[in-house]
Amino acid sequence: MDMSYLFLIIFSITTIIGLWKLFALAGEASWKAFVPVYNFIVWLKIIKKPWWWIFLIITPGVNFLMYVIMCLLMAKAFNKRSFTEKALAAVFGFVYLFYIGFQKDTKYVGPEDRNKMKPSMAREWTEAIVFAVVAATVIRTFFFEAFTIPTSSLEKSMMVGDYLFVSKISYGAKIPNTPLSFPFAHHTLPLTETTKSYLEWFKLPYFRLPGFGSVKNNDIVVFNYPDGDTVALNAQDQSYYQLCRTYGRNVVWTNTDINQETGKTYFGDIVARPADKRENYVKRCVAIPGDTLFIKNKQLFINSKPSYVAPTMQYTYRVKTDGTTFSPQVLTKFDITDPIQQEQDSTGITYIVNLPNNKVDNFKQLENIKSFEPVVEPMGKYSPQIFPHHPAYAWNNDNFGPLFIPKKGVTVNLDTTNIALYSRIIINYELNTMEVKGDKIFINGKESKTYTFKLDYYFMMGDNRHNSADSRYWGFVPEDHIVGKPVFVWMSIKEDNKNITRDRDPKSGFIKKLKTSLFDDPARRARFFCFVGEDGLSRSYLVHFIVIIAAISGFFYFKRKIAERKEK
Fold first, then answer.
1. For the chain, how far is it from start to end, CA to CA, in angstroms?
2. What is the spatial distance between Cα 218 and Cα 137, in angstroms, rounded to a whole number?
3. Which positions ≥6 away from 547 have C-beta within 8 Å?
């Protein structure tokens, strides 16, 4: 039996039996301890706490903290108030309630009358911290979560250094798979590099609350990185599967060579992560369940129709100049980040440049440009990095598909060729066993010529099409990996970067970056306090925010002054 279920059974039995005895001592009918949810309402009545606490008790991520608090208050209500008794109740509550329930000297005295007690500073701080943790956890789990854009795959729609709020209620909040975790940490404990922030011996199955809508074509979506189910701890910014394809699985698992820069082994320990603890990525959903996707010479088609093209979508171009470089003013004007000098000869300098669609025509008119051509991988060129990583599918970044996006309840025919498209879904996402023996496929031990999908899937791509590790590399995104929808960018900090014309200071601190972005960089300042839309960001509401804060501050200032005059 799975350890999490075994613990849950022991936890439930000891808690219920303990409540069965304590309810009787408190004057309540013992049978109430055996009624789910209602037993917690009676428990709240005994410790004299409001009934609405029940909503916190059933909230994953908060319920275990609430259970600890209720065990502590229950022990006090039965006169167990020494430091040792309170510590046992807080740490081993489900066992301690069972224990005191069978002690002959246990008597119900009621909860402490806090109105008669002068709270200490330590108690006030503790209560404030607990309240803040509970409130913030509820908001973060079910409503909004702060997020930072980590990569340039969505530039220029979303940029590295954008700080945004992600709405969980847009698509419905997910119940955490691993509710036993350190508050506000994702997968790694603060101040550590590899220590897990969560416990895995208790897990919950996938469940999503109702939301305001579903993922639509061209939505910008935050999701858990599918390839992040397995991670090399010393190379967490790289796909474990891509590392295995590049170096070989045996090398990744056994390599002991030391990286001279970090002093650590190159790949480190290999660990698995549950869906809710995988890295958060943000991309554009270009295809939803049931769609058929096809990329031909960079042009994306969905269901045989040209897909939406964002004005700021970027592609890579090979640009040759007359021997001169691009000035900082030109780079800023055309939103060019880090042009790469490819080669220089007697006829000029060739650069590889990422350029937004809405800047291409004007850029081509620059006087120092001698030639300008798009970089396109030819059709039929097989790229082993591209999904499904099988020679039978000679796909690449610019020519990909056609590919059907799996939909819940839809059945597909299987053979030894197309199984490469669906094997990860069958094994990793829908938790079946699968074997291929000769020309036969066995799923859960039975020969299978078809497969019916249990979940919906999505195909995500970055707007920076030639600089985006997206579904073209790692395939489908399951519905249980969808986190939410970016709705608001409240701050945007320009990260240090190096290019051919500017030398950034790599040691510049966050405050310096904030000052530069807010006061010296109009492009970044325009991204403060903006709403996120299909085409990118709205106008900035920074000035409106400053005015509102000033008005509120002024109101309370004059209100205090008026109160001071009345007192005189």
1. 74
2. 30
3. none
In 210-349, which residue ranges form alpha helices assigned H by DSSP?
A: 240-247, 249-254, 328-333
Element holding 562 (H helix, E strand): helix 542-567
Taking alpha carbons only, the member of 485, 483, 487 closest to residue 176 is: 483
Q: Is the bond into 190 cis (omega within 30 degrees of 0)?
A: no
Q: Measure the CA–CA gap between 375 and 49, rounded to whole angstroms.
A: 66
DSSP state of 140: H
Distance CA 144, CA 29 (A): 41
Question: Is 183 a residue whose pLDDT tops 80?
Answer: no
Distances 450 to 100, 389, 402, 438 between C-alpha atoms, Å: 57, 22, 19, 17
Cα distances (Å, whole numbers) of residue 466 to 7, 227, 336, 377, 415? 48, 19, 14, 10, 32
Q: pLDDT confidence of 382, banded at 50, 70, 90?
A: very high
- Pairing type for strands 348-356 and 305-306 reads unpaired
| Residue whose structure tokens are 């964002």 | 310
Q: What is the DSSP string of 38-105?
A: HHHHHHHHHTT--TTHHHHHTSTTTHHHHHHHHHHHHHHHTT--SHHHHHHHHHSHHHHHHHHHT-TT
pTM recorded for the entire structure = 0.79
Q: Is 406 exposed, middle or buried (0-12, 13-18, 19+ CB in 10 A)?
A: buried
Give the span between the Cα atoms of 175 and 161, in whole angstroms: 28
Closest C-alpha among 244, 173, 151, 239 to residue 475: 239
Neighbour count for residue 415 (Cβ, 10 Å): 10
User: Token pair for residue 124?
Assistant: 């006030």
Residue 175, classed as helix, strand or coil, is: coil
Decide: 170 and 486 in contact? Cβ < 8 Å. Answer: no
Distance CA 164, CA 491 (A): 7
Among the listed residues 314, 344, 312, 338, the one whose alpha carbon sits nearest the alpha carbon of residue 326: 338
pLDDT at 543: 87
Residue 8, φ and ψ in degrees, nearest 5: -60, -40
In terms of C-beta density within 10 A (0-12 exposed, 13-18 middle, 19 or more buried), how is residue 549 classed? exposed
CA angle 344, 349, 350 (to 5 degrees): 100
The answer to whether 259 touches 253, Cβ cutoff 8 Å, is no
Name, in order, each residue with C-beta under 8 angstroms of 176's C-beta and a sequence gap of 6 or more.
60, 61, 141, 204, 276
Beta bridge partners of 300: 295
Coil vs helix vs strand at 322: coil
pLDDT in tens, 477-508: 999 999 999 998 888 887 654 333 333 444 45
Tell me what percent of the residues of the chain surpass a pLDDT of 90. 37
Measured between alpha carbons, how far is 46 from 10 in angstroms, rounded to an integer? 24
